[in-house]
Amino acid sequence: MCLFFITLFAGPRIGILFWWLVNPSRWSSAFDSFIVPALGFVFLPWTTLMFVAVAPFGNVAGWDWVWLALAFMADLTSYTTGGWSNRGRIGYA
After folding, report:
1. CA spacing 20 to 30 A to 50: which of 26, 73, 78, 81?
2. Per the confidence metrics, is the pTM higher than 0.85?
């Protein structure tokens, strides 16, 4: 179970670092500054990865919003399910 959560939290961040090292021009065309992807790396890694995938020039239209919403839900889920799944350990049950 611990390996699952390590992969869940570290997986997209490793993906961000790898993709940025392999194709930095795509990242520079998707974002104007370094601040937004850095904040995305820390707080919303799945959404940051999906934004680079669907919006290579910073333009989001049509079905791209659905993919971004799913990535945002993945970020929220990764932050909120830890307390519920470990409720027996922290004394809520």
Report:
1. 81
2. no
48's CB contacts (< 8 A; 6+ apart) are 12, 16, 37, 40, 41
With 0-12 CB in 10 A as exposed, 13-18 as middle and 19+ as buried, what is 53?
middle
pLDDT at residue 16 tops 80:
yes
Q: Check the CA dihedral 71-49-82-42 and report its sign.
A: negative
Rounded Cα–Cα distance for residues 79 and 44 (Å): 10
Q: Which residues contact 83 (CB under 8 A, 6 or more apart)?
A: 90, 92
- Tokens coding 42: 């820390």
Q: DSSP label at 93?
A: -
One-letter amino acid of 92: Y
In this prediction, residues 9-19 reach a mean pLDDT of 86
- Exposed/middle/buried for residue 13 (C-beta within 10 Å: 0-12, 13-18, 19+): middle
